[in-house]
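job 3f2a | input accepted
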Amino acid sequence: SFATSCRDFGFLHEPTKIRRLVSACVDISIGRNLGQSHWLRRGAGPTEEQKTRGGGSFAWRHDIDNEFHLHYWKNGTSIEFANVVVHNDFSITE
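job 3f2a | predicted structure (94 res):
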């Protein structure tokens, strides 16, 4: 799902987009620019709980740019990149 979403939005073929995606992945991996990461909530409301999945994983989103976000799961120090989405898409691949 991650590779498919990257391809569908041009993040595998457009050099500028590739650079931004790799930068976001590195930010998440090394704990840099985490001010650009936010909980991925269960609903649209500001008081909604963070999405979770079995095994203690929590859903997050990180800004790639003003139009796209990288959604990922975090469980302790383990990170799993889930999908790239447009700004108002709150879905995440389980």
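job 3f2a | Strands lie at 37-39, 52-53, 57-63, 68-75, 78-86.
job 3f2a | closed
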